[in-house]
Structure prediction request, 65 residues.
Amino acid sequence: MNEDKIKGQWKQLTGKIKTQWGKLTDDDLKVAEGNREYLAGKLQERYGIARDEADKQIKEFDRSL
Prediction:
């Protein structure tokens, strides 16, 4: 899914994102509002993973939609 679609459907996707990454808060998702860079940063912060791993997880999530 491209970034424009993600931003357009952000509210619908937040439930799936919270299921995938339960450590993300509602506030994290409100601030992210479809911003892939911010989301990757929050995944790094909450899960203690490297940036490339966060990007990989987001791409995998993207493909599953």
About this structure: The chain has a mean pLDDT of 90. The CA atoms of residues 54 and 60 lie 10 Å apart.
